[in-house]
Amino acid sequence: MRRSLIITTTVLALAAATAAHADDLKVALIYGKTGPLEAYAKQTETGLQMGFEYATKGTMTLDGRKIVIVTKDDQGKPDLAKAALAEAYQDDKADIAIGTTSSAAALAILPVAEENKKILIVEPAVADQITGEKWNRYIFRTARNSSQDAISNAVAIGKQGVTVATLAQDYAFGRDGVAAFKEALAKTGATLAAEEYAPTSTTDFTAVGQRLFDALKDKPGRKVIWVIWAGAGNPLAKLQDMDPKRYGIDLSTGGNILPALAAYKSLPGMEGATYYYYDIPKNPVNDWLVAEHQKRFNAPPDFFTAGGFAAAMSVVAAVTKAKSTDTEKLITAMEGMEFDTPKGKMVFRKEDHQALQSMYHFKVKVDPNVAWAVLEPVRELKIEDMDVPIKNKR
């Protein structure tokens, strides 16, 4: 009898442990932890962890369930990303997934969310197609999209009498970005003179730079080369070395991670628009993130740290509002949902689930005591200041 009681007690304890484990709220993070965008991926992971900490007041529990982050490295490769997300939903029983870093990989995993009827929050990939033609109802995005990047940059540098040429990477991120930029630039009265695309692996920009110079050098008024580039290569510095000023040509680009902003120090006065720079947003969430990140890592939070943080806050807001992790209840709760982030308020637009959000027009200032270029705010471009087109066919 005693042996039977011990066995029964053991079985009950194991069952209780299994039940508790099953009750974990599992969030899968698919990201390019290794590969060309690993710096972005690591920031996303840090931001996600800190965002959950902040939103749950340090408990890492939500609705009585422990939040467990399951990470999967897709190396920035579409086929690996698809397999990783399928595994997260099917084997790890993830309630919600977040990812991924590369736009090409993100586009590949959209159908996996639909097949599994599970929510995928896209962060930080920005290609317009994600909430455009390739979108499905299970996709939400906290990351900004190419149109938000483009519209904010067009507003920052475009006006009547300005002529612009673009340089972008030859894949979804770059081509979507330029397409959106062209559309936005036309509304400012500026003229687009040329588009150049280069492989992501390009390190020698001499030929492409000369073609851009030739397209602009004889134009009247202000002339600008706008660059949209992610990862290595540093085309801005290479173009600057070619002395565009001899033709009266200015360089411009959007914001970037702090290590990349070091290259902007050679471009004092350059203007553009950015998704995030730690010293610009003034709100309690960002105050906490900046102070806590500085304390933990002896450095300010970066571009994609804020993105990961926003994704975490959207999950907490959604599950709290839905009082469930049931997919249909989450979709109902998330459509039109407002939530706080380090950038202030974001809103998931009902029509395409894109998070509408502020962007920031900046001007580069050089401070010898700071390792990167300081992005001084010119003005906040609020949600209502940007007419972000709906590009899906819902």
UniProtKB/TrEMBL annotation:
The keyword Signal applies. SUPFAM superfamilies: Periplasmic binding protein-like I. One of its GO terms (biological process) is amino acid transport. Residues 1-22 form the signal peptide. This is ABC transporter permease. Keywords: Amino-acid transport, Signal, Transport. InterPro entries: BCAA_transport, Leu-bd, Peripla_BP_I. Residues 25-365 form the Leucine-binding protein domain. Belongs to the leucine-binding protein family. Pfam families: Peripla_BP_6.
